[in-house]
Amino acid sequence: MESLAIIVAIIFMIAILGGPIAFVLTYIPGETLLAKIFRRIPILIIIFLSILVCTQLIFSPIPLMGKTVGIFGLVTDYFAIRREFFPDFYLRKYLKGKGIGGGRSSGNDGHGPAGQQ
Q1: Domain residue spans of the chain
Q2: Are 105 and 48 in contact (CB under 8 A)?
Q3: Distance from C-alpha of 18 to C-alpha of 45, rounded to nearest angstrom
Q4: Across the 117 residues of the chain, what is the mean pLDDT of every consecutive 10-residue run?
Q5: What are the TM regions of this chain, as residue ranges (predicted)?
């Protein structure tokens, strides 16, 4: 039974700490291409393991606390991936360019007092 407790502890530590550790690793400066590659390899390995464990926790028939740990892990993995590989992607600006994100009209679209004739 002791070995089962150790395995469960390792699984939960991967799920809880995988995303935050990968997120902290994204702050290491990489000036050259070689430095970026050596920074991204551990980030990818950690995130891959964390995503596997977290999805297993979410979809397995366990109590709510285990599923919450899995969701926390996936969310932190998302932020680490986004910070490392897509630093210039802003969802709000992307949706606004597509006309989905809301915002104010220019007044010439026929809606509101300035657009009425």
Answers
A1: 2-98
A2: no
A3: 10
A4: 94 95 92 91 96 95 94 95 84 66 57 56
A5: 6-28, 40-58
The 3 state secondary structure assigned to the chain is CHHHHHHHHHHHHHHHHHHHHHHHHCCCCCCCHHHHHHHHHHHHHHHHHHHHHHHHHHHCCCCHHHHHHHHHHHHHHHHHHHHHHCCCCCHHHHHHHHCCCCCCCCCCCCCCCCCCC
Taking the model in full, what pTM does it have? 0.73
Residue bearing tokens 């550790």? 21
> Side chain identity at 66, as an amino acid letter?
G
Is-contact 105 116, C-beta < 8 A?
Answer: no
